[in-house]
Amino acid sequence: AQSVTQLDSQVPVFEEAPVELRCNYSSSVSVYLFWYVQYPNQGLQLLLKYLSGSTLVKGINGFEAEFNKSQTSFHLRKPSVHISDTAEYFCAVSAGSSNTGKLIFGQGTTLQVKP
Amino acid sequence: GAGVSQSPSNKVTEKGKDVELRCDPISGHTALYWYRQSLGQGLEFLIYFQGNSAPDKSGLPSDRFSAERTGGSVSTLTIQRTQQEDSAVYLCASSPSPNEKLFFGSGTQLSVL
Description:
Structural class of chain B: mainly beta
Radius of gyration of chain A: 13 Å
Order of helices and strands of chain A: EEEEEEEEEEEE
Number of helices of chain B: 0
Strand content of chain B: over 45%
Number of helices of chain A: 0
Number of strands of chain B: 10
Largest interface: A-B, 22 and 25 residues
Distance between the termini of chain B: 33 Å
Largest sheet of chain B: 6 strands, mixed
Structural class of chain A: mainly beta
Radius of gyration of chain B: 13 Å
Oligomer: heterodimer
Strand content of chain A: over 45%
Order of helices and strands of chain B: EEEEEEEEEE
Distance between the termini of chain A: 41 Å
Largest sheet of chain A: 6 strands, mixed
């Protein structure tokens, strides 16, 4: 069975600083990995996804993530954050290879960007 | 419509009552999902509909939970005899097909007193 662990429940950071949100997964089969973001009072939206190919995946709003099979990680990074990046971030793994919408989510990481 | 629409946005009910939550997906999206977001459990998959196929109900926590999707469009999630542990945000998502990204609604906040 697959599972996802987000290692930090909250990450405070100052504006324009770099940030890394950590995600580890476990799976006995090939995985598809995702990061979703939930801005205050908004629905979840996809930041980026890894299905195959290059292990470095670029997403919206300047975020990127690297799939590391040996470390079973999919950490999310941004070199310089903005106040508007304050949100909750969810790492997820697909529960089935034929359906990437059926997801197992991590517990979420709240990113708090301070001026 | 412009996005996935869910109603009501907030629902307060008494323990033991039945509730119905509605989801109106993006027009043309064949795949529809229900998830639940609660403090103790995070985001959990509940049920998945794809076209006219039998739904994947593997995430429903008990037989008090059921869902239907009429005409391949609007979906209703029904919780019978609600319990306090059912309190959560119920999220609906749709996608053009099972292997494309999900578009989430803003959710229904359910509070069971």
